[in-house]
Amino acid sequence: MSRKPLPIPPIPLLLISAASVQGGAALAKELFPALGPAGASGLRLLFASVVLLAVFRPALWRLGRAGWKAVIPYGLALGGMNLTFYEALNRIPLGLAVTLEFVGPLGVALFGSRRATDFLWAALAGVGIVLIAPWQATEGSLDPVGVALALVAGGCWAVYIVAGGRLSRLLSEGESVTAGMLVATAVVLPFALAGGTVARMTPGIAGLGLVVAILSSALPYSLEMFALKALPSRTFGILMSLEPLIATLVGLVFLGEQLEPQHWIAMACISGASAGAALAARPKAEPAGA
């Protein structure tokens, strides 16, 4: 039985989700000195799984073979995205990590397009990447490993969007996000345990990890599943062009991360490419049940 959709349009849901994710990412950086990126990612996903199980109480044993075949790619992408993004966040500023990661959903938006304007948006995004890339190893330059990890996280995000769109048509929102979070936890937790997360755990760290889990995983991914129910995956990918800006402002205000002028230009290029693709997108029929 399908759930009644939230009385909020899908686009505001995505903006609320983006603000929640970036606020949670800023808090997660407080966990890095104690747990490391893998430990923080594992703790976030573990707590998020527990919260989602408590809230939705999904009957996961009834998913069946087809359900789990759709869940596993979604969960693998979700786990890979979380782990690689946190590893990138440990090396480069939040705003730039999100800007580079955003190449993933932009790629989903432009994939298969044959319009000349869409090639223009792809080229504009490429300019942004070139401006961020650390071409020379100088003092104060970006960590090239961090840049590469952010791009890998973007690839995982692209898979997450496509797999999530398919999954949302098979399962309810609660079943989808909870099952996917459990798979993601199973992927990341071994890396967290190998880093000695359990030995370093304190009540304060656990409490902060719970807040990060709610802000960064449980709340936004639930909202995104509702949005995916109403939006095609291509539209979903191109309507989040403000997320790099949100991340940059959060990093500036809460983490004191200052960006170089070329980095602001790069962010504008990638966000502008996404916005341009959104404006040029062909209108599609409303999804069933909208």
**Share of helix, binned:** over 70%
Low-confidence stretches: 283-290
Mean pLDDT: 84
SS content category: mainly alpha
Order of H and E elements: HHHHHHHHHHHH
The value of Rg in angstroms is 18 Å
Terminus-to-terminus distance: 16 Å
Any idea how many domains? Answer: 1
The rough form would be described as globular
Describe the protein.
Helix 8 (173-194) packs antiparallel against helix 9 (203-230). The longest helix is centred in the last third of the chain and has 28 residues, at 203-230. By secondary structure, the protein is mostly helical. 75% of the residues lie in helices and 0% in strands. It has one domain. The two termini are 16 Å apart. It is built from 12 helices and no strands.
Overview in brief:
The chain has 290 residues and is an all-alpha fold. It has twelve helices and no strands.
What's the topology here?
Layout (H helix, E strand, L loop, with lengths): L9 H19 L3 H25 L7 H26 L4 H8 L1 H8 L5 H17 L11 H25 L4 H22 L8 H28 L2 H6 L4 H13 L5 H20 L10
Helix pairs in contact: 1-9, 1-11, 2-3, 2-8, 2-9, 3-7, 3-8, 4-7, 4-11, 4-12, 5-6, 5-7, 5-12, 6-12, 8-9
Summary tags:
single chain; 290 residues; mainly alpha; 12 helices; globular; disordered C terminus
